[in-house]
Amino acid sequence: MASDETVQPSNFIRNIILEDIRAGKHGGQVTTRFPPEPNGYLHMGHAKSICLNFGLAKGFGGECHLRFDDTNPGKEDVEYVESIQEDVRWLGFDWGAHLHYASDYFDRLFEFAVQLIQSGKAYVCSLSPDEIRQYRGTLTEPGKNSPYRNRSIDENLDLFYRMKAGEFEEGTHVLRARIDMSSPNIILRDPTLYRIRKVSHHRTGNTWCIYPMYDFTHCLSDSIENITHSICTLEFENNRALYDWVLNELDTPCHPQQIEFARLNLSFTVLSKRKLIQLVDQGHVSGWDDPRMPTISGMRRRGYTPHAIHNFCERIGVARRDSTVDMALLEYCIREDLNDKALRVMGVLNPLKVIIDNYPENQVESLEAPYYPDRPEMGSRIVPFSKELFIEADDFIEDPPKKFFRLSPGREVRLRYAYFLKCETVVHDPLTGKVVALHCTYDPETRGGGAPDGRKVKATLHWVSAAHAVPAEVRVYNHLFIKPDPTETPDGQDFISSINPDSLQVLNHCMIEPSLANADTNTRYQFERLGYFCLDSRDSRPDALIFNRTVTLRDEWEKIKKQAAT
RNA sequence: UGAGGGAUCGUCUAGCGGUAGGACGACGGGUUCUGGCCCCGUUAACCGAGGUUCGAAUCCUCGUCCCUCAGCCA
Questions:
Q1: Residue A3 falls within a domain, yes or no?
Q2: A541 part of a folded domain
Q3: Rounded to an integer, what distance in angstroms lies between the CA atom of residue A100 and that of residue A32?
């Protein structure tokens, strides 16, 4: 059984917190936060951050807040704030009473900005966006002071209040911190704190027409919420100087510690919001919850479990170096969980008709098959057996290669939970020569799958009774991209050119055992010998079942075939 | 080449002056009414060069390579 009491492995952030607690910092408290901007759906990269922040808080007896960083109304939407909450909850985390929005702090943030102006640490700059860029300098050359840098405090105050009152057009004025235009850290060259945006906000409506920037908002929001450890990704490393500057210049409740870690990269997929949006908008996938997407909603629909995602996030660790985790590890984690949870059933993806010549016409037997072969006490279902069956087309080869030990002419195999079956003759399509059916015989002495004479077979096949099978559609998924790093593309091409044309295969003629007729969305199934499957929560209907393949089983035969091919 | 970061098995990660360990993958074997699960084994790493030390992945020096920053995005 997979266990929930997973040992939290050591990582540098845990070590920092451990040391802080030992030193009595923050009074021994640990409060973290997960601060998404509601401008897209959550993906596996967010899952890493969610598990880290909520996991740390839980592990140290603290709390983790969910805070929407909603300071850019033009790009944000309630659709996203809803999906984000659903996804975090689905992952199994609880923010308790701590659901916050940066927009809840707009009044206080404004007051902080006034404070900064009053202490001469901020000014209203009336340069155009283009001029600001030119004045900023470059990586190697210092910037130069804005001509508006020395406005009086009174003038700045007046202008700032008038910005708030809506007297100016977008782009005409901004509030800037007065720090150092020649700082080697470009972030510190009088960064913008507030800009004018005459757009409605999804929570504050038209109350505001000036909105605070990330660097000003985030540190103050953390402080207002008494966050002790503000964990973010590496690209904010340079911003830490500004995070600390703002909190040092202002009289704030506390000064949280910003700690950066490396964001998650996963092979054969992309984990950047910008790229995921592009996949959705350009129709390369059916939506944010397309089962091929590395989004939480996509993976949920695909059949991934919260438990598997937790385990994955623990196994990948947390560090400061850029890295790309092998997709095989994610697949290992979901197999590990589903191996424990999934009901074993039989379904044939590519049916091949089998006629058992010596089986009585019109006879139907009811065979009992356990849902969990390793734990038969967990229940079973009845599987009908009759003269005509379907087996997997891949399980028969007329002229078998070495090491293939499934069915071929003259060879005997076992039908799972049923009888030994021997292939006698092969029926071909007269036009194409394709194999269309097999005439076989069975051994009545082997009912249940055992041979009284002790003879062995080298393979056991899954099957369904043709007369009783339920037709179904099965969607099998492969990597969304053909390359481990989709962004590694030939000249001029972008990552879209790396999309795998076979990432989705729809199989319309599948035959599944009758017990699956009342399959439900919450149950995970293993189609024996094939993989793990679940009902598609969006498209499946009771009279037209659609299954998603979550992941294949490990497949030794695939490997042998590949080895033989090389 | 301004500033800030980072380099440990193929991949991810531990290590905090004292035998470089784990996981995934790969490879081989055992078991098996799933070529699954499970079990056993093998493979395989400290970016380089110096230095300090009885002893260096760890401390120091000098290199090399990689990442981030020039939004009124976050």
A1: no
A2: yes
A3: 13
Q: In what order do the strands lie in the sheet with A504-512?
A: A343-345, A525-527, A531-535, A546-552, A470-477, A504-512, A347-348
| Positions of A marked active-site | 37, 263, 273
pLDDT given for residue A4 in this prediction? 38
Q: Is A518 helix (H, G, I), strand (E, B) or coil?
A: helix
A241 and A388 both lie in a single domain = no
Residues forming a β-bridge with A426: A438
Give the bases of strand B that a protein CB approaches within 7 Å.
1-8, 10-16, 22-27, 33-38, 66-74
Task: List pLDDT tens digits, range A7-29.
Answer: 567 899 999 999 999 999 999 99
> In this structure, is the CB of residue A343 within 7 Å of any atom belonging to strand B?
no
pLDDT band at A1 (very low <50, low <70, confident <90, very high): very low
Q: Which of residues 9-48 of A touch strand B (CB under 7 A)?
A: 9-12, 15, 35, 37
CATH of residue A22's domain is 3.40.50.620
Is this structure's pTM higher than 0.95? yes
Q: Give me the domain span that covers residue A443.
A: 347-462
A467 in contact with nucleic chain B (CB within 7 A): no
The percent of residues in chain A predicted with pLDDT above 70, rounded, is: 99
pLDDT digits (tens, 9 = 90+) for A476-506: 999 999 999 999 998 889 999 999 999 999 9
Work out if A133's Cβ lies within 7 angstroms of strand B.
yes
Query: Which parts of A81-209 are beta strand (E)?
Result: 99-101, 122-125, 174-177, 192-196
Residues A348/A462, Cβ–Cβ less than 8 Å: yes
- The answer as to whether A4 is a domain residue is no
**Does the structure show a pLDDT above 50 at A6?**
no
pLDDT digits over A539-566, tens only? 999 999 999 999 999 999 999 998 888 7
Query: For the segment A102-143, what is each residue's pLDDT rounded down to a tens digit?
Result: 999 999 999 999 999 999 999 999 999 999 999 999 999 999
* CATH number for the domain harbouring residue A552: 2.40.240.10
How big is the CA angle at A484 (ends A481 and A489), to the nearest 5 degrees? 75
Residue closest to A233 by CA, chosen among A50, A480, A416: A50
CB A489 within 8 A of CB A497: yes
pLDDT of A564 reads 86
> What span, in angstroms and rounded, lies between the C-alpha atoms of A267 and A479?
9
Q: Are residues A226 and A198 in contact, defined by beta-carbon separation less than 8 angstroms?
A: no
Considering the domain architecture, whether residues A339 and A355 belong to the same structural domain is answered as: no
The pLDDT of A258-262, averaged and rounded, is 98
Contacts for A90 with CB less than 8 Å, ≥ 6 apart? A296, A300, A306
Distance in angstroms: CA A52, C1' B44: 30
Distance A11 CA to B55 C1' (A): 27
The residues pairing with A531 across neighbouring beta strands, listed in sequence order, are A527, A552
A335 touches strand B (CB under 7 A): yes
